[in-house]
Amino acid sequence: xxxxxxxxxxxxxxxxxxxxxxxxxxxxxxxxxxxxxxxxxxxxxxxxxxxxxxxxxxxxxxxxxxxxxxxxxxxxxxxxxxxxxxxxxxxxxxxxxxxxxxxxxxxxxxxxxxxxxxxxxxx
Length: 123
Ligand SMILES: [Zn+2]
Prior knowledge:
single chain, 123 residues, mainly alpha, binds zinc ion
């Protein structure tokens, strides 16, 4: 597995194929080596949990920053900023939570040759 490639949002197997087509859309398999990113249906679902956990952390983490770094004491302003951080971070982080999940899964279940085969999937 290539961690550097994952950080650049590239295929973890060959480091060449792109993991994402548009901003949110990921191709089913690597255009370069043929590895199926989506190993089974619903494969990427756990990324929602990962993304949520990090989003909550980022939002909570913005509170001391707003309070002490910017000296904002107004609760409504603080809450608005925290929500804005959560939304912006959540959107920005979607791709990275998928990448984190991919890295974790590949660590636990190293790629098999069958991950390069269609196995009834659309190829
Ligand atoms: Zn590849």
